[in-house]
Write a structure and sequence with these properties.
This protein is α/β, with parallel strands linked by helices. It has two domains: about 210 residues, TIM Barrel (Alpha-Beta Barrel), CATH 3.20.20; about 130 residues, Beta Barrel (Lyase, Ornithine Decarboxylase, Chain A, domain 1). An eight-stranded parallel β-barrel has the order 2-3-4-5-6-7-8-9, surrounded by four helices. Helix 1 runs parallel beside helix 3. The N and C termini lie close together (about 10 Å). The structure holds pyridoxal-5'-phosphate. Pyridoxal-5'-phosphate binds next to helix 9 and strand 9.
């Protein structure tokens, strides 16, 4: 790795996170690790750590992602959450990918092929998110019976997705009831995997008795979704007493606002000082001469910019544990001011070590999903595992 900018990904932490989740929530049979977009940008490399921790199914967005994951693990079942074009049936079969079926015309087209191999199918149900899935009972019932008769299609699962947490809103309960209503003419107990929940509902709501699977996303990447942390710290969100009031108003089903899940983020971002120049009061810095130096000191040029997903809105970086203000940004470089003299090559922390991801999210007023995904693929992922060995993925 020539450029000293990298995201340090700790596979050991991810494995421990899964163990911790399963220890605290042992009531599911299927723990489906959502590894979209290279495992929320941690790198596809971590899938084997997640599996070692106890994830026994994976979910991805697209066939491209599924094939990438399949190269890392030959056996784990992989569900594709988006709809795969049937022009790619050969790749679906070759890579043993579980497909999502969400409408009747797609299923009928699939049935019209002369299949020789078995394809696993999960039915998606739109219980209120209005994104994907069957939204009428008649079509869903027809699909269920067509799949029951199909020789080369195996109805392995059925799922839906919650739009809200249900913690302070009536929509979670609405979606739960809508799912039951839409599936009331089929036999859920005949379908091996029923999965509705995601991280926030795992920790915030009770397991619905007809579900035996849970899709784990942000929680396995180290965010326990405890309302105490999220809501009290993020700008513009509700305080705990306001949540309680709303819960009463909407008569929400049992809700857990906090939890003791000890999961940790496994993602840290570092760079280094590439250049240094001495500046005096009044000197102008950066594009548009946007910053006027206020004190004598140094401008440090750091090897990352908005093309890497980091800009001035991060406000500061840490050099030798000292906060240094980002005074200007470019596509590839940040300009940082400090009065202390540091050597060229000194390591710079952006976040994930002494500066927590929560702190960055609060500064940027975004959540961890956005933060991870905005750190671009140009940033090399340095993967660290249990035995302290490093592998560079660039
Ligand atoms: C269908 C589906 N299930 C589960 C997840 C995981 O969500 P979370 O990270 O909130 O657990 C996602 C995330 O994008 C999703 O789209």
């Amino acid at each position: 790795m020539q450029r000293p900018t990298y995201a340090l990904i700790n596979g050991e932490i991810l494995m421990e996170n899964i163990k911790e989740i399963k220890k605290n929530y042992p009531m599911y049979e299927y723990y489906i690790g959502v590894v979209k977009n290279d495992a929320y940008h941690h790198s596809v490399y971590v899938v084997n750590d997640l599996i070692k921790g106890g994830v026994n199914y994976l979910a991805v967005s697209s066939l491209e992602e599924a094939i990438k994951v399949r190269k890392i693990n030959k056996n784990i079942p992989i569900l594709c959450l988006e709809i795969i074009s049937l022009d790619y049936l050969d790749l679906i079969i070759k890579n043993n990918i579980t497909i999502t079926v969400e409408r009747l015309d797609y299923l009928k087209k699939l049935l019209s092929y002369n299949l020789e191999d078995l394809i696993k199918v999960h039915l998606a149900v739109d219980s209120g998110m209005h994104r994907l899935g069957f939204d009428n009972k008649k079509d869903l019932t027809t699909a269920f019976y067509l799949l029951k008769e199909a020789k080369h299609l195996f109805l392995e699962g059925i799922y839906s997705h919650f739009a809200t947490s249900g913690i302070a809103d009536p929509y979670y309960d609405y979606q739960l009831n809508k799912f039951l209503e839409l599936t009331s003419n089929i036999y859920l107990e005949e379908i091996p995997i029923v999965h509705l929940g995601r991280s926030i509902t795992l920790v915030g709501k009770e397991k619905p008795n007809f579900c035996n699977g849970i899709r784990l996303g942000i929680v396995m990447y180290g965010f326990n979704q405890s309302r105490k942390i999220d809501y009290d710290s993020l700008k513009g969100k509700y305080q705990l007493w306001q949540i309680r009031k709303k819960r009463q108003k909407y008569n929400c089903s049992i809700t857990h606002l906090t939890n003791n899940l000890k999961v940790k983020p496994a993602f840290a971002l570092y760079s280094a000082i590439m250049s240094r120049r001495k500046v005096k009061v009044g000197d102008l810095v950066g594009y548009g001469a946007c910053y006027k130096v206020k004190y004598p000191g140094y401008i440090y040029t750091i090897c990352l910019g908005y093309a890497d997903g980091v800009d001035k809105s991060f406000e500061y970086v840490l050099i030798n544990s000292q906060k240094c203000q980002i005074v200007a940004d470019c596509m590839d470089m940040l300009l940082v001011f400090a009065q202390i003299k540091y050597e060229i090559g000194t390591k710079v922390e952006i976040f994930g070590g002494e500066r927590s991801i929560y702190d960055v999210c609060q500064t940027l007023n975004i959540n961890a999903y956005h933060l991870f995904n905005q750190i671009s693929n140009r940033v090399t992922r340095v993967y660290v595992n249990k035995n302290k060995s490093k592998e560079i993925i660039g």
